[in-house]
Amino acid sequence: MRARKFFLHRPTDLDEAIRLKAEHGDAATFHAGGTELLVALKAHVLHYEHVIDLKQIEALKGVRLRDDGTISIGSLSTHDRIANDPIIRESLPGYAALSEHVANIRVRIAGTLGGVLCFAEPHADAPTLLCALDAWVVLLGPDGEREIPSRDFHLGEFTTARADDEILASIEIAPQSAGTRSAYRSFGHTERPAVGVAAVWSTDNAQRLSLWAGAISACPTRLSRAEEAAAELDGGLPAEAAWGRLRDAVRADAQAIDAHDDLHGGADYKRHLVSVLAERAIKACLP
Amino acid sequence: MSQTESEFPMMRVDFKLNGAPASVDVEPCEMLIDVLRDRLRLTGTKRSCDVQVCGACTVLVDGNPASSCTTLCADAHGREVTTIEGLAEGKRLDPVQRAFIAHGALQCGFCTPGMILAVKAMLARHGAPSEADVRHYLRGNICRCTGYVKIIEAVMDLIHNPSSYQ
Questions:
Q1: In 3D, which of B98, B104, B110 has the Cα closest to residue B144?
Q2: Distance from A202 to chain B by nearest Cα, in Å?
Q3: Which site from A124, A185, A277, B128 is most exposed, i.e. has the minimal number of CB atoms within 10 Å?
Q4: pLDDT tens by residue, A36-75
């Protein structure tokens, strides 16, 4: 099916983009890589008379290290760019690996991180790890700039805390301490994950595990029983022993997830996957 | 206020197509595959899933693989587009095409243009990828005939014995 006709705007700076959105209101949408939006326009699931292409805006591009060590990822960064970015590969190799396994090479080259976050299709990879890393997003709108933790950004399927006239400018990740490891493991029969689990394990000062499951429900979900159990563990436990002490808590967390039967699998199956993938992600973080 | 469809202006897209300058007036909503196939009669680019999963519509944009079914033609402005028709020099086939033929890496041939262009992009970027790298890179190009074994064999032989296909 072919997309219905629209007017394509190509602003070169953020002010112009925000002004165009104010001018055309509900008839306009922002557009970046197109891997979600163009498919929806072709299927006539969505229609906008004005498509505001953000790809010419330099301020939304690139990955950089701020003075305080925070990694700032411009929202137009593609999965392929993130997978191969020297800063990400050095500081967050688990995130680079996740990006290298998103969908297929064409989607990785076209699709942007900002697009994935804003479209908010639950069956996505990056949001789960960004929640575990306690990242935050920077939104720009007519009334200025605001920040939202990624844990509060997704509100439901295809729904986020971004106001319709705001542009997601960047994703920010605080510097990780030397003893912190992160990993993401996923499984699915389609190009989208049925379930993904992200683990961030810090051994500095106290044990601290951040464990999140995604794709299985509308928004990424914290596995809090497992996190609490991890805080009680002795330091320096080998991976197998640590997992043995966390397994029951992870299973209890998985049972509590609001999962549903769908084309990605039955709810019970997907809850089982949470345990399997949590084991893999946690063990990948430990020696 | 709703606009009628006649009010949406055409856009001029100037790009390089298979090495030669090209210029087309397109609707902003037109996908690259529609312009290539229906207007420019380059029907080597195949439409299958239409949702960028299968890889049959793969073309190269500035050397990178793109799903032409889900790429705005307007986004080709100022860029270099390569389709399967652009690989051979006259009657002399590209080494990737030669390797596919030598190994019987195609049956119905529908996925082959996209598969070959994906291999071109992979080799330009990665030089000498391992078999695992090749399988990972080609994961998004679906073939319903070959079972992939012949395709992987063709690509690996091309990597290890490039002079055989010059």
A1: B110
A2: 31
A3: B128
A4: 999 999 999 999 999 999 999 999 999 999 999 999 999 9
Given 3.30.465.10, 3.30.70.141, 3.40.50.1000, 3.40.50.720, which CATH number is that of A58-173? 3.30.465.10
- Would you call B66 and A106 a contact, using CB atoms and an 8 Å cutoff? yes
The ipTM estimated for the assembled molecules is 0.95
pTM to 2 decimals?
0.95
Cβ–Cβ of B72/A38 closer than 8 Å? Answer: yes
CA distance A157 to A35: 17
Under an 8 A CB cutoff, do A34 and B50 touch? Answer: no
Residue A277, class by beta-carbon neighbours within 10 Å (0-12 exposed, 13-18 middle, 19+ buried)?
buried
* B70, B118, B122 member nearest A34 (Cβ): B70
pLDDT digits (tens, 9 = 90+) for A2-48: 999 999 999 999 999 999 999 999 999 999 999 999 999 999 999 99
* pLDDT tops 60 at residue B3: no
Pairwise CB contact (< 8 Å): B139 & A104: yes
The amino acid occupying position A71 is I
Other CB atoms closer than 10 Å to residue A205's CB: what's the count?
Answer: 9
Name the nearest CA neighbour of B58 among B150, B151, B121.
B121
CATH 3.40.50.1000 fits A180-285, yes or no: no
Amino acid at A164: D
Helices B112-126 and B95-102: angle between axes, nearest 10 degrees: 120
User: For chain B, which domains are there?
Assistant: 5-86 (3.10.20.30), 95-161 (1.10.150.120)
Number of helical H runs and strand E runs in chain B = 5, 5
